[in-house]
TrEMBL record:
UniProt keyword terms in alphabetical order: DNA-binding
Gene3D superfamilies found in the cross-reference section: Tetracycline Repressor, domain 2 (1.10.357.10)
Biased composition (Low complexity): 1-15
Annotated region of DNA binding: 48-67
Record-linked Pfam families: TetR_C_20, TetR_N
Coiled-coil region: none
SUPFAM superfamilies named in the record: Homeodomain-like
UniProt-recorded name of the protein: TetR family transcriptional regulator
Spans annotated as Disordered: 1-25
HTH tetR-type domain: residues covered: 25-85
InterPro entries xref list: Homeodomain-like_sf (IPR009057), HTH-type_TetR-like_transc_reg (IPR050109), HTH_TetR (IPR001647), KstR_C (IPR041642)
């Protein structure tokens, strides 16, 4: 199995749920768009379920059937943003010479996309931080999408080794931590770049070809 196929398999491994009808999917899209718009303007506190319902033209009870809480909604919003990033990155793959360079380039592109919407980024990261066990399926989906993005970026000819998959998990944790420290003003963009490039070197260090 190629790395790309592995990434697709990981991304597709969402918890089983009945497929939405075309109308339901359109409604869900409106809800997620309203959530992102409100978060972009005022961050986590600006996303109020009643306002989301009004902005997306759905009944408040309907909104709660799709998303039981604001945390569920914002984690789903992050999932949606990552799916858009994944599509963009696949259309314009990273140009680095090594898997580590391609991974670092991809994660910095994703980071800069979030940097352009700092209030939205803060709202989504806070939702992930606040998520309890009831939000585990949505959080797991965010993690799988991040893994898929990294695996696609690596561009391996063969399936990743268990050691490389372990490295990917460490990279995920570092990227998430870098987002938090940057959003809190405790790290500069330059420092984030250094940390991302450093942790992505684990991919090359765990490569089967590495002595």
């Amino acid at each position: 199995m190629t790395a790309e196929a592995k990434a697709a398999e990981v991304a597709a491994a969402d918890p089983a749920s009945p497929p939405l009808t075309e109308r339901q999917e359109a409604r869900r899209r409106r809800i997620l768009h309203a959530s992102a718009q409100l978060a972009s303007r005022g961050g986590f506190d600006a996303v109020q379920m009643r306002e989301v319902a009004e902005s997306s033209s759905v009944a408040l009870g309907t909104l709660y059937r799709y998303f039981p809480s604001k945390v569920h909604l914002l984690v789903a919003t992050m999932q949606d943003q990552l799916q858009h990033m994944h599509t963009t990155i696949r259309k314009r793959p990273p140009a680095g010479e090594t898997p580590a360079e391609r991974c670092a380039e991809t994660l910095m592109r994703a980071f800069r996309a979030l940097q352009r919407e700092p209030h939205l980024a803060d709202a989504m990261v806070r939702a992930l931080t606040f998520a309890d066990r009831s939000v585990s399926p949505e959080v797991d989906t965010v993690s799988r999408l991040t893994t898929a993005i990294i695996l696609d970026a690596m561009g391996l000819a063969d399936a990743p080794t268990p050691e490389q998959l372990s490295a990917v998990r460490v990279i995920e944790h570092t990227w998430h931590s870098a987002l938090i420290t940057w959003l809190s003003g405790r790290a500069s963009i330059a420092q984030v770049k250094i940390d991302i490039e450093m942790v992505c070197r684990l991919i090359d260090l765990t490569s089967p070809e590495t002595p």
